[in-house]
Amino acid sequence: MASTIVAKFNRYLPGILLGLVLGGAGGRAQTLPLAENLINLASSQGEELLYSSQARRDFLPLSTQFVTQINQAYCGVASSVMVLNALGIKAPLAPEYAPYHVFTQDNFFTANTQRVTTIERVRQRGMTLAQLGQLLASHGATPQVYHAADSSLGDFRRKTIANLNQPHNFVLVNYLRRTLKQEWGGHISPLAAYHQQSDRFLILDVSRYKYPPVWVKAEDLWQAMNTLDPDSGLSRGFVLVNRP
Length: 244
Ligand code: CA
Fold this sequence. Notes:
Elements: H1 2-22, E1 38-40, H2 44-51, H3 59-63, H4 75-87, H5 111-114, H6 119-125, H7 129-138, E2 142-147, H8 153-164, E3 169-176, E4 186-195, E5 200-203, E6 214-217, H9 218-225, E7 228-229, E8 234-235, E9 237-242
Antiparallel strand pairs: 1-6, 2-9, 3-4, 3-9, 4-5, 5-6, 7-8
Bound molecules: calcium ion.
């Protein structure tokens, strides 16, 4: 009897996980259309890629912390909050939830983060890849920052797949949307899974009002990361985030 229940649970687990990510609306938010290079996670093809993904260890912990960025400059803040909460790093008090402690996009900014950049600056311009790493470190995480220009597609694929197979660490990507035929500028979001046969990564896009989670070809994502960020004068790239 118990094994039957377990078998049924395993059978339906991917659907349960997908429901966590897509929410009650079944993924039918009024998001922008996707170009043919991207696969919507909520499509039958996207769902199948998740079911048959060989590297989805990070999907559940990230999907249970999946948030929408609270303004159009906070992609890095929202992505960081997801990862800090998923890592279980000691969180500050959230006044709106007192006495409970959790990272939110409001309590993310502290005296320590002020040494990296200011809340005003992030509201206007977002953050660079290096600042993303420094902000995560200021909260006690251990980030490894990789600019695409100093790495390679093979190196990115190898490091990231290894991470997506491991618990208690996560991957954030910083890329140029228009390279993926999305609107328009630099963006940051977590990666949640990799599908080997199609060579695609799953991006949990934190601008959920605009785009659904998408499966993107590794090479396309690489090209989108290997772009110049005018705010830093350096290429975009990715961050591997570990516990302290
Ligand atoms: Ca991981």
